[in-house]
Each structure stands twice: as C-alpha cells, then as structure tokens.
Amino acid sequence: MDLLISMVAATIIAATPLVFAALGELVVEKSGVLNLGIEGMMLIGAAFGVWAHFAGVPMVFAVLAAMLAGMIASLLFAVLALTFMANQYAAGLALAIFGAGVSAFVGRGFGSTPVAAIRPLDIPLLSDLPVLGPMLFRFDPLVYLSFAMFAAVSLFLYRSKTGLALRAIGENPDSAHAIGYPVIRMRYLAVMFGGAMAGLGGAYLSLVYTPLWVENMTAGRGWIALALVVFAAWRPLRVLLGAWLFGGMTILQLQGQAIGLTLPSELLSALPYLATIVVLVLISRNREAMALDFPVSLAKPFRPKG
C-alpha cells in the first residue's frame, strides 16, 4: 500500500508541468492558433525561474518571473504569426529553437547548483488521514494550482461568454469579426496565456521537480504537451488524464530501473513517450468525436477586413 500511495503521489507530481503547458496550449489552439514553441517557452521559464531564485527574490516572484518570461517569448511568436502573418508552423519551430538557446545562455552560470525547492504543504488534519492524506494532501502549492487551472480553463471555455467567443473565433474568425469580436486581440491574449502557462510548467521543473537547472531539462515535455492537446481532442479532462498517464509511465520507468529490469535503459527511458502516444492515439480513433472539438481555423492566417 505504501508503494502504491507513493507512486500515485509521484505520478501527479511528474504530470504537473505537462498539465500547465498542455492547458495553456489548449486555450491557444481553441482560438485557432497553433504554437509549436512550447518546448522553448518551458525552457525559458525554467531558466528564468532559477535565475530569479538565485537573484534572491522570494520563490513566488521567481515563479512569476518564469511565467512572465514565457509570456514575453510567446509574444514574439504572436507578433510573427498574428501581425505579420508568418507561417505558424515555422514561427513555432523557430520559437522552440530560440528558447533552447536563450535558456542555455541564461542558465550557463548555474551549472547543477541545487535550488531550495518549494516545499509541500502540511494541511492540518487532512495530511494525517490514512491513505488519502499522503496521496492527496501533501503536495506543494503548484500541484494544487494545476488542479485549479484545470477547473478554471474548463469553466472558461464551456461556461463563460468570453470562452464561447474564443471558441467561435477558433471556428470561424471571419464570422466572429463580422459580429464584432476583436479576433486578433483575443488571439494575442490566448497566446500570452499559453506562454505564461508554459513558463509555469518550466518553473515547476527547475524549482520543484528537479530542483536545479540542467540544459534542455524539459526532455521533450513541450512536444508531449503539444501531442496531448491534439490526441485528447481538445478536451481539458482528456488533457489532464493524458498528463497523468505520462507521469505514471515516467514513474514506472524509474521503478523498473530501480528494481533492475533487464530491459535496455534506453528502452525504459523511451517507455513514457511511447506509451502515452500509443494510448492517446487509440483514444482519438473516434474521428467523429474529435471533429466536434477541432478548431476549424487552426493555424490558418486571418487578416481583418474593413
């Protein structure tokens, strides 16, 4: 039972950076914009979070600095893709490469210096509950924030007027513009939100999960987050479950190495990525269900007329 409890808790922790990044990209894509630069924005957030921490600011401001860095990086993409109408695929890939370079430059002086990680909360009474206490009530504040962001994004997209307008823009920006919605402005805000969330995911890696700075420490999580959004059919709950799946496979891979499985270490390291993609592909085989939530104008340029 203790092993099961520790594995469930470790799964949720390992999935948290993916939850942040994928929920942010979900909102971006619902607006009709495709940003492939999640990996770069996560790396920038991770590097600037560590930089702010070693600059001596409180941890909450280090997290905010990481979010701001991710948001600024996303603005570069937004200017190219939305204002100058550059190809969104090319602009996103450029941002991913740019983010890797910038993060390596910012983090070059930190090496592998440990960070004073954000500590888990000790919730009175709840933390002491048998089974549920260590499984649900002994996480750091950012894990609980990921749950809150899942709820907030779900309510925003499906229970708010602004969320309905954003989805309408993702479906048909010309019609949305004709009835008075500020298409470009709302897409800018969506892209900025996605950048902030990717930066937050990166900050979680460097300030909580690792916690230290290592070059290219995201290890492909930005690309997994991008895949989660598509294979989850642009539904927040499936994004959350997919992130937990990846986190669970990551923990199983570590457990396999710990108990000395005879499989090659390279195969065990690839297992979380392979299993996540295979399961999500199987989930997304229902083309009719996927078509219901697919943003029709995804990655298509839009220029207001008149």
TrEMBL record:
Pfam families: BPD_transp_2. It comes from the Bacteria. CDD domains: TM_PBP1_transp_TpRbsC_like. Keywords: Cell membrane, Membrane, Transmembrane, Transmembrane helix. The chain crosses the membrane at residues 6-26, 33-54, 60-82, 89-110, 141-158, 188-210, 222-246, 258-283. It is found in: Cell membrane. It comes from Sulfitobacter aestuarii. Its main location: membrane. InterPro entries: ABC_transp_permease (IPR001851). This is ABC transporter permease. It is a multi-pass membrane protein. Signal peptide: none annotated.
